[in-house]
């Protein structure tokens, strides 16, 4: 058992490892806070917000589910576009972040205009607004976190340590927003009032972000994880007389390491197919599960309860992910397991949890 002095020493070591203070980081964290606030109070619980905006008389479950899934799917696909734009088009992360913040504010303004006093939505304004929000969400996912990571590059840290430090700040802000969103006044606001508050917060935080322009570290070359795929495929087509994919290296168009990386990418395509089931459960979690929760919650302020359970779910997900990674790493250090096999076990356990989740949801619906 660890003594108090050992615990304090351990805490100090972890604090020194993860926590780093630079002026530029705090300007960026202001924008991270506003983005996370939009996610927690609006996008993550879009199902409930649409129910609140439409009212019971005009509410259509099928339409709302389609809208929520389209928004989430569009945001996920657009990530590829912004990775390409930041690297190949040499736009850079800063300009992409500025673009996404501007688009997010415009989208929130259109959402406010779309909400009517008679509990209906002006769909001509609402659909473009949601599209702009998906665009902003995709740009934020890939570039804002990367831009935060870029501020630690001048410190000469190794890649893993730098990413852990930037991830630490990202997690701290996310946790603070989750607490504020769950226990603050925002859940009780109507759709139109919430949009007005988010516009104000986003505008102020965006202004603070721009104030730090002269303090930012700009990286001239941005890593593109999808670039190797295009290079290898192009090289393979150029050397058709050699075995597929090895053609690319034969022509000297790319390195053998790039070819091996793409081969590994192709090998996990069957694994991606297995995740279709997981994707369906995940989509149900942000649509049908929220709808079920609204029916089970008798309190008028059901959004507070849904936010609480949504944040609790993400906390459990975060804790389970880090705990399992820690156990696998320790077992690998002691040479008691093969890391690749343990990762497969970890994935299998997650799929079993998906099954148990669906069984529990089914039994809950039956009893209700």
Automatic annotation (TrEMBL):
It comes from the Eukaryota. The chain crosses the membrane at residues 15-38, 59-85, 91-110, 168-188, 194-213, 268-290, 302-323. Keywords: Membrane, Transmembrane, Transmembrane helix. Signal peptide: none annotated. Belongs to the major facilitator superfamily. Phosphate:H(+) symporter (TC 2.A.1.9) family. This is Protein NRT1/ PTR FAMILY 5.7-like. It comes from Salvia divinorum. The lineage of its organism: Eukaryota, Viridiplantae, Streptophyta, Embryophyta, Tracheophyta.
């Amino acid at each position: 058992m660890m003594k108090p002095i050992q615990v304090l020493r351990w805490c100090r070591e972890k604090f020194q490892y993860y926590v780093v203070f630079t002026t530029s980081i705090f300007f960026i964290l202001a924008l991270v806070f506003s983005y996370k606030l939009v996610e927690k109070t609006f996008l993550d619980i879009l199902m409930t917000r649409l129910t609140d905006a439409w009212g019971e008389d005009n509410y259509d479950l099928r339409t709302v589910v389609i809208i929520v899934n389209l928004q989430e799917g569009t945001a996920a696909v657009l990530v590829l576009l912004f990775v390409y734009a930041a690297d190949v088009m040499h736009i850079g992360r800063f300009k992409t972040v500025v673009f996404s913040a501007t688009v997010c504010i415009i989208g929130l303004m259109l959402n406010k205009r779309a909400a009517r006093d008679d509990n209906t939505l002006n769909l001509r304004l609402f659909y473009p607004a949601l599209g702009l929000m998906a665009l902003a969400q995709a740009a934020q996912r890939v570039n804002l976190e990367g831009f935060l990571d870029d501020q630690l590059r001048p410190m000469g840290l190794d890649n893993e340590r730098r990413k852990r430090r930037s991830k630490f700040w990202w997690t701290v802000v996310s946790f603070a927003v989750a607490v504020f969103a769950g226990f603050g006044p925002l859940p009780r606001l109507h759709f139109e009032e919430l949009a007005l508050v988010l516009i104000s917060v986003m505008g102020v935080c965006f202004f603070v972000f721009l104030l730090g322009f002269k303090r930012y570290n700009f990286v001239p070359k941005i890593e593109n994880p999808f670039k190797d795929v295009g290079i290898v495929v192009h090289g393979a087509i150029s050397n058709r007389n050699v075995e597929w994919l090895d053609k690319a290296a034969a022509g000297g168009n790319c390195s053998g390491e790039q070819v091996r990386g793409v081969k590994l990418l192709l090998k996990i395509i069957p694994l991606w197919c297995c995740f279709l089931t997981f994707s369906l459960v995940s989509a149900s979690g942000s649509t049908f599960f929220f709808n079920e929760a609204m029916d089970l919650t008798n309190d008028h302020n059901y959004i507070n309860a849904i936010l609480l359970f949504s944040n609790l779910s993400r906390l459990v997900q975060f804790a389970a992910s880090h705990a399992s990674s820690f156990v696998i790493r320790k077992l690998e250090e002691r040479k008691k397991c093969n890391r690749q096999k343990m990762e497969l076990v970890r994935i299998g356990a997650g799929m079993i949890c998906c099954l148990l989740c669906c069984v529990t949801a089914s039994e809950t619906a039956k009893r209700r």
